[in-house]
Amino acid sequence: MQRLYDSAEPRVMDEDMLKLAVGEQGPQEEAGQLARQEGILFKDVLSLRLDFQNLSFNNIEAIEGLDTLVNLEDLSLFNNRISKIDSLDALVKLQVLLLGNNQIGNMMNIIYLRRFKNLRTLSLSGNPISESEDYKMFIYAYLPDLVYLDFRRIDDHMKDLAASKHQYGIDELKHREHLIQARLDDEQAQQEELKKHKVAFVEHLNGSFLFDSMYAEDVEGNKLAYLPGVGELLQAYKDKFVIICLNIFEYGLNQQEKRKLELDTFNECIQEAIQENQEQGKRRIAKFEEKHLLSLNAIREESDLTNIEIKIVEYGEDITELFNVLMTLEMQLVEQLEETINMFERNITDLVALFIENVQSLMAQCRDLENHHHEKLLEISINTLERIVKGELDEDLPEDVRALFVDKDTIVNAVGASHDIHLLKIDNREDELVTRTNSWCTHLVDTIHKDEIMRNRRRVKEINQYIDHMQNELDNLECSDVID
């Protein structure tokens, strides 16, 4: 057996080690050679041993590099230097974990194993934790689905005793796990919602995200917010802006439903047409094959050469007729599907065009709000400058804000810079929405056309192969039976 490492130096698992281990323990001879030629598919690995029995004394210190072994059920890491059980999260199907004779000393490593719901066999003998007085009872309590520990079946009575002994700790842990799971479920639900919003091209428009992004990099605008009266102006602007964004968001979801309905209806029509056409083809083939057996038998049983030749010609004509019928059915289907696809393309293009047109109209309202806000802010800023010049401003402004009011040009430039940033953010979000929507539509239509071309090619190939097979049967019969 080839040794993985001859050195006694500490090692960590890497891809080369994994490939070698899987290669040595996988199929040999022809199957193994084929796997090595085509590349090892780690997702197909169900069992892996990284211990002295198979790969010499590996001296592995850390568990890592196993993320690709998503279907692994049995993992052996006996006789290594592992001190912590971690980095196994991807091994969701793990049933057997053998970690005997390592350096695991912290009992909290057992808590980590609770996430493996299929784990039934565990070995930790020869580790420092196995010397603990509470070793077995702790594992029985915190891994209640475990069946074997250190190659001994766990007694149900001992499980009950262990659960009672550690009930408080388990209840606390379950409470924390429940909170964590609830948070994960919430995050997943949010991600699913976000995915739906992205499909509708209106993600982050169901709140103040776009408005907040306008001010995230707007240094001058944030300074100007300190001016008297700007706070109220800004709040009114934000409220109206967010309402428009919500209108875009709700309209986007509504239009997505319409697009989905259009696509679902189209797919239904396509499948119905294909299925009906296939049924017609099957009926014609069944009718032909029924006659086919009779024709072949009739030729075989015929003794007169002239009659044989006549029957062969007739049978050849039947094959040609079937070919013509099947090809005619396919051409009819092509024309029918082409008409359906073209109608769908017009409908979906119109839906997308209407969606974009209305979104652009709503975005124009956002720009109108921004322009109105810009005018009011500029008016307040110039009035503030005049009051400062006259010494009539009672409010205490931060120094960086006062620095804007050295002259009219400075304050006008500051307000203008803020305005430009806001318009750019609105324009960019609109452009992104329009571009993605159009790209989606173009890709969808292109894919549908390509799929139909491929379907037609496959069907024509199937027909030709079937007809060739029928013709070969006739040719072979003519060459052998008839000659004989």
Report what the structure shows.
- This protein is mainly α and 484 residues long.
- The chain folds into two domains: 155 residues, Leucine-rich repeat, LRR (right-handed beta-alpha superhelix), CATH 3.80.10.10; 271 residues, no CATH class.
- Helix content is 68%, strand content 4%.
- The protein is built from 13 helices and eight strands.
- Strands 2-4-5-6-7-8 form a six-stranded mixed β-sheet.
- Helix 4 links the parallel strand 5 and strand 6.
- It is flat.
- It starts with 10 loop residues before the first strand and ends in a 5-residue tail after the last helix.
* Helicity level: 55-70%
Count up the helices.
13
Structural class: mainly alpha
Question: pLDDT under 50 segments (min length 5)?
Answer: 1-7
Biggest β-sheet: strands ordered side by side in the sheet: 2-4-5-6-7-8
How far is the first residue's CA from the last residue's CA?
A: 61 Å
Envelope shape: flat
Give the total of domains. Answer: 2
The arrangement of helices and strands along the chain is EHHEHEEEHEHEEHHHHHHHH
This entry's quaternary arrangement is: single chain
What is the mean predicted local confidence, pLDDT? 87
Largest sheet: 6 strands, mixed
Rounded to the nearest angstrom, the radius of gyration is 37 Å
